[in-house]
Amino acid sequence: MERVDYQSLIIQDLVNLDAKGELNKSPWYQRRSVWLPSQKSYLLNTIFEKKPIPALYLRHSIDLDKGISIKEVVDGQQRTRALLEFYENKFTARHPEHPKKVKFSELKNSQKESFLLTAIPIGFLLGATDSDVIDIFARINSVSKTLNSQEKRNANFSGEFKQLSVSEATARTEFWKDYKIFSANSIARMDEVQFTSDLIMNIAEPLSSYSAAKLTKYYEKHDDDFPKRDEVQKKLTRIFDTLVSIKPEVIQNTIFNRSPILFSLIISLDNIKKHSIEKIESGLIEMDLRFDSDIPVSKRAKEDIDFYNACSATTQSLENRKTRVDYITKHIS
Q1: Are residue 95 and residue 182 in the same domain, yes or no?
Q2: Average pLDDT for residues 186-199, to the nearest whole number?
């Protein structure tokens, strides 16, 4: 192989190449189109949100018989097909300026132009033999990292619930960092996305214990559609607006910067329709003082003992979650 030449093509270029028969989307070593509609929709949403997508790798060669230049998709077949199929109105995607998912034809002219002008990074493989291509394809698609539960969910699902969980979690990155809820390493491993997913599920449904398998099933159930999306988003906005109105140190330096306890605080705030910031702050300070009291746990009031125990072991069980929510709600409402 001579070299890899990195350039960019706009989506309109891919459309034009495909229309002229100069784009080979199905070389013999590629899989057939296997992406689900939710995966295609997620790719388009990523583009609409102006977030980066992985580069496509194309083998550039000449068809001497036809006298045309051929671009063969070595890596990125599913992405390429999704872009072209959206242009052909074959599926819908969520656009930030539309309340519902839309087809290409339903976009405003300015939005269509913005989409078609989107630059896609391309690695052109020049002078690549079939052996070169197979070697490169294997290298690009090799994975050695062991994924945790949330990273597996992120890889396996692309639909409505996943998109909501990721967007709500990442929108609050500064909160997680500033209030010392998740470390940089935890965020890198998507712990804040798992926390947000579990939170959304428990706001949308009755309070339950945490189960990795149950959360994964919820992702699967709501991959195509999550009817409570707008309702949950409004609740989260209201709750986090309240949290950032509280003095940071009331959360940063207390038991409430522990994610299971913060989880219960958020559920409690969702249960309280009217609240006072002053009352919440004083309640959080009081609860933290009781939790870290010098009084032996066995000699404290029963409700304080129950709360202490619910914060100290099996924090994700339904019983302990209920105990914490009831205790917190009583002190801040």
Answers
A1: no
A2: 93
Which residues are CB-neighbours of 200 under 8 A, at least 6 positions away?
A: 161, 164, 165, 168, 232, 236
Cα–Cα distance measured from residue 306 to residue 313, given in angstroms and rounded to the nearest whole number: 11
Where residue 216 falls among pLDDT bands split at 50, 70, 90?
Answer: very high
Give the separation between CA 51 and CA 45, rounded to whole angstroms.
9
Q: How confident is the model at residue 31 (pLDDT cuts 50, 70, 90)?
A: low
Pairing of strands 68-75, 56-63: antiparallel
Structure tokens given for 237: 């906005």
Query: Taking a C-beta distance cutoff of 8 angstroms, is the pair 29, 134 a contact?
Result: yes
Do residues 164 and 43 both lie within one domain? no
Last residue of a domain, one of 140, 169, 197: 140
Q: Which of 140, 166, 196 is the last residue of a domain?
A: 140
Query: What length is written for the chain?
Result: 333
State whether the Cα torsion 172-177-181-186 is positive or negative: positive
277 and 165, same domain (yes or no): yes
Whether residues 302 and 205 share a domain: the answer is yes
Cα–Cα distance between 163 and 53 in angstroms, integer?
Answer: 15
pTM for the structure as a whole: 0.75
Three-class secondary structure of residue 38 per DSSP: helix
Neighbouring residues of 194: CB distance < 8 A, sequence distance ≥ 6: 149, 150, 153, 215
Pairing relationship of beta strands 119-126 and 56-63 according to DSSP bridges: parallel
- Asked if 9 and 113 sit in the same domain, the reply is yes
Per the structure, the complete domain to which residue 206 belongs is given by 149-332
Contacts of 241 by beta carbon, 8 Å cutoff, 6+ apart = none
